Each structure stands twice: as structure tokens, then as C-alpha cells.
Description:
Structural class: mainly alpha
Protein name: ABC transporter permease
Oligomer: single chain
GO molecular function: ABC-type transporter activity
Largest sheet: none
Helix content: over 70%
Main location: membrane
Mean pLDDT: 83
Membrane topology: Multi-pass membrane protein
Organism: Auritidibacter ignavus
Amino acid sequence: xxxxxxxxxxxxxxxxxxxxxxxxxxxxxxxxxxxxxxxxxxxxxxxxxxxxxxxxxxxxxxxxxxxxxxxxxxxxxxxxxxxxxxxxxxxxxxxxxxxxxxxxxxxxxxxxxxxxxxxxxxxxxxxxxxxxxxxxxxxxxxxxxxxxxxxxxxxxxxxxxxxxxxxxxxxxxxxxxxxxxxxxxxxxxxxxxxxxxxxxxxxxxxxxxxxxxxxxxxxxxxxxxxxxxxxxxxxxxxxxxxxxxxxxxxxxxxxxxxxxxx
Length: 262
């Protein structure tokens, strides 16, 4: 009788298995899911609805809701990825899963799927609340474009969160995520419209992934005439850079695990 070595399953299949277990673990802590859903709604309640000149203007209200949707995904991606990855690296179960025969890409994709679902889920209650309390409106085609662009532009935020998680401990990850969230939100024009920025701040803002997301989502929703070239270039650059950095950090973490076990 000879032993046969089974071939490794495809990357997507491995990622889906890991994502399913990560979602199951997240559901066991409902408070974290509720906070994920509530964060952008709180921003709408405190910063948009009280400003009646914004809430009652269809274009202004819709653009404000789009910016809050990006902020919700940004905040949830940074915190969930940074803290979850950092804590997983400190747990015995995390050490075990890093020793399993899988690829770095599968681990990254599993986090993108599981945490991405939770982050994108924060858009649903925000859209419902905005529909009943503001004049924000989108027709079918722009709405589909906005949702699709939100999914695409969320990838760099998730990867940045993973970089924080793989390069720091769980306590430091919380502090880093908080500081970076505020910098990206303010600098990217999610709290204040970029058109009021001075030239020097606008130049810096255009290099941030949050500004790229705002440019792309706003264009996809029909609020910009020309193709957002700067936003698309920034999104591609940030996605490539953060993905490569994440792969290197995951590989370093896995190699260190094998050295320690040896």
C-alpha cells in the first residue's frame, strides 16, 4: 500500500473555507457586528440630518451618504482587520492555522471575504436610514455603480488593516487603526468636501486611498462628468502596493512560525 499525496485545493476553495470559519467566529460576538452596522448611521444622525440644508438637498444629501458609506467601510476594515489579524497571531489557534498547507494568497483572500462582508454590510442600514430621513436618492443604474465601486475601493482599506495586524500587537493595532482612520477620513474628504481644501492639502489628499475611493464612488454614482483618472491611478497603485506588502508580511509570519516550531 502506497501513500498518495493529495494535491492542494485551489486558492479560492481554501479561502472560502477559512472565511466561513472566520464569519462563524464573528457571529458569536454579536456586539462587534452591531457596532459595525451602527458606525456610519451614527455619522448620518449627528453630522448630516441636523444640517437641513444638506439633508433636504438631493445632490448634497446623496454625496454625504456616499462619503459616510466609504467612511463606514474604511473604519470597519481598518479596525476589524487590524485587531482580528493581530489577535489571531497571538492565539494558539492562529499559530496552528499558519502551519497548515495553504498559500499566503488564500489567507489574505479569506480575510477579504469574511471581513469584507461585515464591512460592506454597514452600508445597508445607512442606506435605509438615509432613505427615510434625507432627500438622498439614486436611480437603479447609478446605485449599482456605487455599490460595485464601493466593493472595489474597499480593498486597499482592508489590506492596510491587515498590514497593521501583521506588523504589530493587538493593543498597538487598535491605536494605529484609530490614528490612521482619522487621517484618511479627514485627508480624503470624507468629513469635509475636498473642494474647500487649499491647494497644498488637495495635492496631499489626492495621494490617499480614501480620496481615490471618494472620486471613484462619486463618479460611479453619476456626480462627476469626466473619468476620475487620478482616483483610478491611486486605487491601482494602493491596491498593488498593499497587496504585495501583505503577502510579504504573511510569508514572513509563516516562516517565523516554522522556525519557532522547529
